[in-house]
Design brief:
It contains 11 helices and 34 strands. By secondary structure, the chain is an alpha+beta fold. It has 4 domains: 216 residues, Collagenase (Catalytic Domain), CATH 3.40.390.10; 163 residues, Jelly Rolls, CATH 2.60.120; 154 residues, Apoptosis, Tumor Necrosis Factor Receptor Associated Protein 2, Chain A, CATH 2.60.210.10; 49 residues, Laminin. Strands 1, 21, 22, 23, 24 and 29 form a 6-stranded mixed sheet that branches. Strands 9, 11, 12, 14, 17 and 19 form a 6-stranded antiparallel sheet that branches. Strand 15 and strand 16 form a beta hairpin. Bound molecules: calcium ion (2 copies) and zinc ion. The site of zinc ion (ZN) has 5 residues, from helix 4. The site of one calcium ion (CA) has 8 residues, from strand 13.
């Protein structure tokens, strides 16, 4: 804390006094120019004339492209990410694969010489063929501006055998095509197929499909070309957030899916069997399945804002009983495939500060057939009048149960601990959660809200800004900010992919359609240089100054209509989940790449000597260490010689609470004299002692 503050204050002060760079002239990066560009706009701007905007036909479309097993891929599809792809696109394609692994039985693997594979490359625009064409290398283009997860999912659904939703044989029952508003020569894009060519797999017409055109596709003026017969859906069609429930149902039917690779369990406690969870008898209390608690929550999380006393939650009452009473709730047996899991659940504390919830895993192996318990996380804190979202990373490789253990503390309680809407999947947990309460008020304020400072696993400090505009579109800004590790980090910040996700709070993770965008820092861009050099002085709510780097911004992150189309806002709260991943290993992903000659690399690298398990690679002929990173630690430095951990950067763990700012204010005051001394010393060493009026 001390060190961090020291850097923040020092960097701010140095810049104010010694400032030399023309920072104000540095341009921001706007990733979407304020326009929600769809696939068809992107391809049209490039002058492409593809079938239905983004489908590459090899010949005349056969009568039954989607129907017919010869067009199916195997459940695990071989792919190559060509080096032509933008780095951000490469990272996003892998993220899109993760969504397929979570929601369907489709998996992807790097190509190892299989007869047919998908070559994902950066062509002009975003496009794909429909189905497996069985011609060896099958191209799928993710061009400029196509680096969006919904767009990538869309193109891969074409490759898997799907046409656009509005070309279904029954589409005239659901949408009206406004012929006179279509650009001349583009009418063919609105063809529909008879049910011999395209099978809709007995799934209803889906306005929510990621395969549906938007209302403005191929329009000649300003009026929509597609009008939905149910007016409420006019702004729903054309979503590129994620698969819809029906997209997944169709994909599962086409490929006879029975299970997915990474989904494990979802439970909203709506059914009396509580998803097979069991009450322990070796404790002295039980969790109760109830609809509300007098001292809160007034309603469960599943139905909050929708219905009262309809949905159920699990509650451990701490207002009665004695200190140290325990109530244990165990999941059914779970069988991991990947060895890492993310447990997500909502939690409501109306008990006391000393009541605690422990999350444990009980692992069953040959050596311990009755299971061994391991504490993973303890949740304790002041009672709050709202549902909080928690993520717990598990790393379990054998058969296991998840265990929720409530323990009554010594303080007086009027309520207890409640949990609801649990999801468990073999995916990575997001790194940070930004909970924005009183969202209606935030929107009406129309001022930028800044997140607390967050740290990436590598140690970069960053901040998110959220700005509701007059038209209620949400703008998202990402900034690198000055942080505790800046002296030890590489600048400009290279190949860190930041993903900002607005959570769809649907209780079932498989049906969520969260809205997300990603950016990847490019070391050739000055905006990603050290915030001390290219940023501007900014202030935390407690008055502490820091340096905020230029913004990378999505000025049409989500529209109001889309915001209302899913459960993004619940209990007047939204959750923004962020993850920053180092994707520098994706620089070269081509198999048989000649860029690195292993023998040379080995000898040069051996001499270079990366420490602490760092991996040496050659960049432009020079050895570079890629340092290992854990959940809350990382190595940095030229040879990975320095260890960083969340202990050094205390801000991380508690940053989601504003209370940190109060704490920081106190420390600022206490340490001012100390910083003055340190600062003077540093100034002296820089030969600037005569310019230091602190
Ligand atoms: Ca519930
Ligand atoms: Ca019990
Ligand atoms: Zn398409």
């Amino acid at each position: 804390m001390d060190l961090w503050l020291f850097y923040v204050l020092l960097s701010g002060v140095i810049l104010q006094i010694v400032c030399c760079l023309p920072v104000q002239e540095l341009q921001e990066r706007n990733e979407d120019s304020g326009i929600d560009q769809d696939i068809f706009d992107i391809n049209e701007a490039l002058g492409l004339n593809l079938f239905e905007g983004d489908i590459k036909l090899d010949e005349r479309p056969e009568r039954n492209s989607i129907i017919g097993n010869e067009y199916r891929w195997p459940h695990t599809i071989p792919y190559v990410l060509e080096d032509s792809l933008d780095m951000n696109a490469k990272g996003l394609i892998l993220n899109a694969f993760e969504q397929y692994r979570l929601k369907s039985c489709i998996d992807f693997k790097p190509w190892e010489g299989e007869a047919n594979y998908i070559s994902v490359f950066k062509g002009s625009g975003c496009w794909s063929s429909v189905g497996n064409r069985r011609k060896g290398r099958q191209e799928l283009s993710i061009g400029a501006n196509c680096d969006r997860i919904g767009t990538i999912e869309h193109e891969f659904l074409h490759a898997l055998g799907f046409w656009h939703e509005q070309s279904r044989s029954d589409r005239d029952d659901y949408v009206t095509i406004m012929r006179d508003r279509i650009q001349e020569g583009k009418e063919g894009n609105f063809n529909k197929y008879d049910d011999k060519r395209s099978d809709f797999l007995n799934v209803p017409y889906d306005y929510n499909s990621v395969m549906h055109y938007s209302k403005n596709a191929f329009r000649n003026g300003t009026e929509p070309t597609i009008v939905t017969n149910i007016p409420a859906f006019i702004d729903v069609i054309g979503q590129r957030m994620d698969f819809s429930e029906y997209d997944i149902r169709k994909l599962s039917r086409l490929y006879n899916c029975t299970s997915s690779l990474s989904f494990m369990e979802t439970c909203s406690f709506e059914f009396e069997n509580v998803c097979g969870m069991i009450q322990s008898t070796e404790d002295n209390a039980d969790w109760q399945r109830i609809t509300q608690v007098p001292s809160g929550p007034q309603t469960d999380h599943t139905y909050v804002g929708i219905c009262q006393e309809t949905g159920y939650l699990m509650h451990f009452n701490t207002s009665a009983g004695s200190v140290s009473d325990r109530a244990v709730l165990e999941s059914r047996f779970l069988y991991p495939k990947r060895g890492f899991q993310c447990l997500q659940f909502y939690y409501y504390n109306s008990g006391s500060e000393s009541d605690q919830l422990n999350v444990l895993v009980k692992e069953y192996t040959d050596a311990s057939p009755n299971g061994t318990q391991r504490l993973v996380k303890t949740i304790q804190g002041s009672p709050a009048g709202y549902w909080e979202l928690h993520h717990v990373s598990l790393n379990v490789a054998s058969k296991f149960r998840v265990v929720f253990e409530g323990i009554k503390g010594p303080d007086g309680s009027n309520g207890g601990l409640s949990i609801d809407d649990i999801n468990l999947s073999e995916t990575q947990c997001p790194h940070h959660v930004w909970h924005i309460r009183n969202f209606t008020q935030v929107v009406s304020s129309a001022t930028t809200q800044y997140s607390p400072p967050f740290y990436s696993p590598k140690g970069y400090a960053f901040q998110i800004g959220l700005l509701p505009t007059s038209s209620f579109n949400l703008h998202i800004h990402l900034h690198l900010i000055s942080g505790a590790n800046d002296d030890r980090l590489q600048w400009p910040c290279a190949w860190q992919q930041a993903t900002v996700l607005l959570l769809d709070q649907h209780p079932d993770i498989r049906q969520r359609m969260s809205n997300q965008r990603s950016i990847t820092t490019d070391p050739s861009q000055l905006v990603y240089d050290r915030p001390d050099n290219v940023g501007m002085v900014a202030t935390f709510p407690n008055g502490t100054e820091f340096m905020r780097g230029p913004a990378t911004e999505f000025s049409s992150f989500i529209t109001q209509q889309r915001l209302e189309s899913r459960e993004f806002v619940k209990e007047d709260s939204i959750f923004i989940l962020t993850t920053v991943e180092d994707i520098s290993h994706l620089i070269s992903t081509q198999p048989n790449s000649t860029a690195v000659t292993p023998t040379t690399a080995t000898s040069v690298c051996e001499a270079y000597g990366c420490q602490n398990g760092g991996i040496c690679i050659l960049e432009e002929g020079k050895p570079v260490c890629r340092c290992p990173v854990g959940a809350d630690w990382w190595y940095v430095g030229e040879k990975c010689e320095q260890k960083g951990s969340t202990q050094d950067t205390v801000v991380i763990a508690v940053a989601s609470s504003l209370s940190i700012f109060a704490v920081m204010l106190i420390i600022t005051i206490v340490t001012t004299s100390c910083i003055k001394k340190k600062y003077r010393k540093k100034m002296e060493s820089l030969g600037l002692q005569n310019k230091t009026p602190l």
